[in-house]
Design goal:
The complex is a heterodimer of chains A (about 375) and B (about 220). Chain A is an alpha/beta fold and about 375 residues long. Chain A has 14 helices and 17 strands. In chain A, the strands form four sheets. A six-stranded mixed β-sheet of chain A has the order 6-7-8-3-9-10, with helices on both faces. Chain B has a single domain, classed as MetI-like (MetI-like fold, Orthogonal Bundle). Classes of the chains: A alpha/beta (about 375), B mainly alpha (about 220).
Chain lengths: ~375, ~220
């Protein structure tokens, strides 16, 4: 950040890469990756996304155009110096099998001349940051599981606290459960660290999940569209992008947009301590919302079940259909899901404290969705 | 063929001296071979077209009969231990060069790339990453070269530096089998001891392999 303005940390100016065998990996690419955000490069294999990434730390040199990092041409520095300031994470971590986990993480600090003691102390600190037990430090990489190795890979990239991280399909080799876990960890870390991250994947769901900005590449090294995920899903530039986003594009979009600003209407309800008579008086339709003493939703009461019960008996103890309270930070998709699964056909809204504020129906959710596209 | 144990007991000092002499030809030959093979292997590994040339050359050198090799070397280095060591060094190259190149090939590309991407230079990557990871394959070559050299030293008897080989000449000339048998057994023992030592060295140098079993 400079003068409070978002600075484009990484900038490509008419960059092309043609390999000696004649293939064009990247074709006239001009794009900016903003500071402190995750930009995901996505596309099928051979589309130039990895080459684009590798040109940033000069593992590949472009045949035309310039790349600047924080306003400075990447060719201004010797390649090794440049690379020590850029974290790099690759698939299957690329850890040094002959060095302990601690030594692996301490690689860049050691190269920067921090001294053994300080480098190792920093490495030990990072073990904790990425959620590994302290005793993992003495082990060798092949004594760890795939997911753990990937965490070491992230720790190693973060060791010298570089402002920029390049991640090349870092979670490509782990199973879906571990992958989701690692994605969550990355989101958590990024909320704290605010690194400028360039992330390569071929998985559009991963891109939507992680990206502040997504750049879609097409075979032949063309970047087709670069936009925040919601914009991409709502307004794909062409059929290629739409096809790449998949048939569930609408659902993906709903999963990205939150309920913040989506209106709700008041709902008739009774406390779970109420009597059957009070419930009858409050009922407006077949389903009545029951609220627990803390103000949160306890469940939906079928008012039909009240027939024949004495007015003085308690509501507590009657069977309730489950109701889930949705906060403003929850997605439109989860709200839509709630309208489908709850018997009342509406989603119960709660405030930050979890106290019921009202309900939102499908028509309102649809209106919000239509306003996006 | 009978063994005269009496001869053995009166010649233990000689046998010991000959064994040491044997090793002072064999060990420098292997070390020198390694010293030459390492840089050549790095070149052969990096520059593809040179690989075939260098490996082919070391193969051809290996086919030159040892006697002929010593004859070629004599005018240059004379009747010295240097001649014996030089000849044997040339033979070690066929194994050491090939194994070192294969060892470097065995280093995963991802690991090499990660080292460069961390900001280690090419030389640093070679010394700190590629060579240590190639070590098991290189050491396999060193073991073969050592055993081979220890058995080959005897041929340098022609020029007087055959170590234990002198027992063979001695035994044949006098039609007296005891020294010959002693020489064969000694050579075998030296080769086994050298191999065991190298296995131990490799074991000590590669903790990541012996701790490799996933915990």
């Amino acid at each position: 950040m400079q003068n409070g303005k978002v600075v484009s940390m990484i900038r490509f100016d008419s960059v092309s890469k043609r390999f000696p065998n004649g293939t064009t990996a990247v074709d006239d690419l001009s794009v900016e990756f903003s500071e402190g955000g995750i930009t995901v490069l996505v596309g099928s294999s051979g589309c130039g996304k990895t080459t684009t990434l590798r040109m940033i730390n000069r593992l590949v040199d472009p045949t035309a155009g310039t790349i600047t990092l924080g306003g400075r041409d990447v060719r201004d520095l010797p390649a090794a110096r440049l690379r020590r300031g850029i974290g790099y994470v690759i698939q299957q971590a690329g850890l040094f099998p002959h060095r302990t986990v601690l030594d692996n993480i301490a690689t860049v600090p050691t190269l920067l001349g921090w001294g053994r003691r300080k480098a190792r102390a920093r490495a030990a600190e990072l073990l904790e940051v990425v959620g590994l037990p302290a005793d993992a430090g003495k082990r060798y990489p092949n004594q760890l599981s795939g997911g753990q190795q990937q965490r070491v890979g992230v720790a190693r990239a973060l060791a010298a606290d570089p402002p920029v991280l390049l991640m090349d399909e870092p979670f490509g080799a782990v199973d879906p459960v571990v992958r989701a876990l690692l994605q969550d960890e990355l989101i958590r870390l990024q909320a704290e660290l605010r690194k400028t991250i360039v992330f390569v994947t071929h998985d559009i769901d991963e891109a939507v999940r992680l990206g502040d900005q997504i750049a879609i590449f097409r075979t032949g090294g063309h970047m087709v569209q670069c936009a925040p995920p919601a914009e991409l899903l709502a307004r794909p530039a062409d059929d290629f992008v739409a096809g790449f986003l998949g048939s569930e594009r609408g659902l993906k979009l709903l999963s990205l947009v939150t309920l913040a600003g989506v209106p709700y209407e008041p709902v008739g309800s009774v406390r779970s301590t109420a009597t059957v008579k009070e419930a009858r008086d409050a009922a407006a339709g077949r389903w009545l919302l029951v609220v627990s003493p803390d103000g949160g939703p306890a469940g939906w009461l079928d008012t039909g079940a009240l027939e024949g019960l004495p007015g003085t008996s308690a509501v507590a103890g009657l069977a309730l259909a489950p109701a889930r309270g949705l906060r403003d930070s929850d997605s439109l998709l989860s709200a839509l899901n709630e309208t489908v699964s709850s018997p009342a056909g509406v989603a119960v809204r709660v405030d930050a404290a979890g106290v019921v504020t009202g309900v939102t129906g499908q028509d309102v959710l649809h209106a919000r969705q239509r306003s996006l596209t | 063929m009978t063994i005269e144990w009496q001869w053995l007991s009166t010649h233990t000092d000689d046998l010991w001296a000959l064994s040491l002499d044997h090793l002072s030809t064999a060990i420098p030959a292997v070390l020198l071979g390694l010293l030459i093979a390492l840089p050549l292997a790095v070149v052969a590994h990096r520059i593809r077209p040179l690989r075939g040339v260098l490996l082919g050359l070391s193969n051809i050198m290996f086919t030159v009969p040892s006697l002929a090799l010593f004859v070629i070397l004599l005018p240059i280095t004379g009747l010295t231990r240097t001649t014996a060591i030089t000849g044997l060094t040339i033979y070690t190259l066929v194994v050491l060069l090939r194994n070192t190149v294969e060892g470097l090939d065995s280093v995963p590309a991802k690991v090499r790339e990660a080292s460069l991407a961390m900001g280690r230079g090419r030389v640093g990557t070679l010394l700190k990453v590629e060579l240590p990871l190639a070590l098991p394959v290189i050491m396999a070559g060193v073991r073969v070269a050592s055993v081979m050299t220890i058995s080959l030293v005897s041929v340098a008897s022609y020029i007087g530096y055959g170590g234990i080989g002198q027992l063979f000449t001695d035994g044949f000339q006098r039609n007296f089998p005891t020294p010959v048998i002693a020489g064969v057994v000694l050579t075998l023992l030296l080769a086994l001891a050298a191999d065991a030592l190298l296995v131990l060295v490799q074991w000590l140098c590669t903790p990541w392999i012996r701790k490799g079993a996933r915990a």
